[in-house]
Design brief:
With 93 residues, the protein is of the alpha+beta class. It has 2 domains: 33 residues; 52 residues, no CATH class. Helices cover 39% and strands 30% of the residues. The chain has 2 helices and 3 strands; from the N terminus they run H-E-E-E-H. Strands 1-2-3 form a 3-stranded antiparallel beta sheet, with helices on one face. Strand 1 and strand 2 form a beta hairpin. The longest helix is centred in the first third of the chain and has 26 residues. The radius of gyration is 25 Å and the shape is elongated.
């Protein structure tokens, strides 16, 4: 004959099922979140003729991440200044 569950046993059982559910929800949220930053302000820092792609330029573009205010520098190769900024934003700053 099994004894009635004690309060301690019930609490352990609840925690045993709740904790994995919470961790799974956190992991699912992290995976669903976009993996790139949004930048509305980007400026070209350097521009030099590309050694790998003739007719294009190697750019270093500096962007400010809207959410955090952090500055991010990205290197891209493009034919025009506008294309360089567009490529940088597509990369997620």
């Amino acid at each position: 004959m099994r004894p009635f569950p004690t309060r301690l046993n019930m609490e352990c059982s609840i925690m045993r099922h709740t904790l994995p559910a919470i961790l799974l929800a956190i992991a699912a949220t992290a995976m669903a979140a976009p993996a790139y930053a949004v930048c509305s302000s980007c400026n070209i820092q350097t521009k030099a003729p590309s050694t790998k792609e003739p007719g294009k330029f190697d750019y270093r573009v500096s962007c400010i991440i809207d959410e955090s205010g952090d500055e991010v520098n990205t290197v891209v190769t493009a034919a025009t200044d506008e294309e360089a900024i567009e490529l940088t934003k597509k990369k997620g700053c």
